[in-house]
Amino acid sequence: MKIKKNKGFTPTPIMxxxxxxxxxxxxxxxxFFKTLYxxxxxxxxxxxxxxxxCRGFILFLSLLIMSVALSIAFSVFEIFIFQIVxxxxxxxxxxxxxxxxxxxxxxxxxxxNQNNIPINGQANITCNNENKTFNMVSGIGxxxxxxxxxxxxxxxxxxxxxxxxxxxxxxxxxxxYTGSNCDAPYSRRVERGIEVAx
Length: 198
Hints:
Layout lengths: L12 H4 L5 H91 L8 E7 L2 E7 L3 E7 L5 E7 L9 E7 L16 E7 L1
Antiparallel strand pairs: 1-2, 3-4, 4-5, 5-6
């Protein structure tokens, strides 16, 4: 093959030696270069695919860990709220019980030591530094006590109780009251009752 030399045209080395003995070496080198190039390209694509798989696995693992952590946090939070509510209920229950116990002690002291509660007529007693006046009809009567901590007690008297114990006192202590009425409804009110017969 003759290379036609035109004015201003300079043949490249590859074109000059295409038909020579080195052309086969050059072809093999070009083929090796192409093979190496495509291998690297394929390897990069394969590495990218592996990297994407790793990213998906890491995302799944992160979501799993977050789910477990949130479940534990919600469980601890639920236990914490339950303990707060339980402690509040214990405090309210204690306040209601103390109110009922104070009512029992007041009636028992007024009846036994002062004899201020008749079977029929007007009763005048002093409880919690407060004078209470109420009527007894055939041994039946009732009144209410109010305490400084916001609790109250409703007291029912039955001094004609049948049986070996003729006098029965029922006291319903409540942790809260509304206005001046211990029977008025109140949200989250706790009631504890005590009954004594003598």
